[in-house]
Amino acid sequence: MLEPAWIAVRARASASADGSVDSRRASLMQAFFDAGAMGVHEDGDALVTHFPPGTDIAAVEAHLRAADPAVALDVSDVPPVDWSEAWKGALDAHTLGTLTVTPPWLADQYDPARTIVIDPGMAFGTGEHGTTRGVIRLLDGVLRAGDTVADLGAGSAVLAIAAAKLGAARVFAIELDPEAIPNAEENVARNGVAECVHVFEGDAAALLPLVAPVRVVLANIISSVLEGLLPLIAESLTADGAVILSGILRDERAHMLTVLEAGGWRVTAEDEEDIWWSVAITRR
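RE: above sequence
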């Protein structure tokens, strides 16, 4: 079905004093979400998203310019599109370790026991982003059969489903955005893991203590939020617990390693893709 015309906003970060754009790119991505975006696509050096008709684009631009005053912006109308068909040309399957993340129309090509079928809805997490892929690649080396897992900022629940497919006995998928919850629940049901994956709407800081202790925490969230959550995560782990963090820029690696060292964490594995860094950690 054709939808009304939406508004495309494309943003290119300006360079910082050292010539890097990565940190400002991350700030722009967060600004898009703060302005109401449900997802952001990386198109080369640009960040792109779409807003529904009637959106106050001046307010969106204000959010972006507050994050990067020299940002290059391009705003244009998007012709009506049949999104069900447009998604099919944009998404592909990704084999990550022993698992494959795929959209529904490609799922028949793969072993269901090792496949995560994600419908590209409003929620973040289709397997198209390096942060999602980094966590799944690290998960094979962290998860043990029978584990209890908390997935913070679960989005589409792709990481929670991955944990279940790798043998977790119970997974709590915690997501703050109410609009992401139906998509997460549909994906859990579609993948046949509803008996062990439980989707909760709410703030991870409030809900994690209620499901603790857990042996594994997955957190694919921007680094500033991760830093604030680390003490709570530490309190919520079992004695032999492990954590996988993502959503961290490679430029932020050194800073995050300092934070982890000061907080009593030990790095057990790392993953890099494009501008993103993911890390598996345990308590020292």
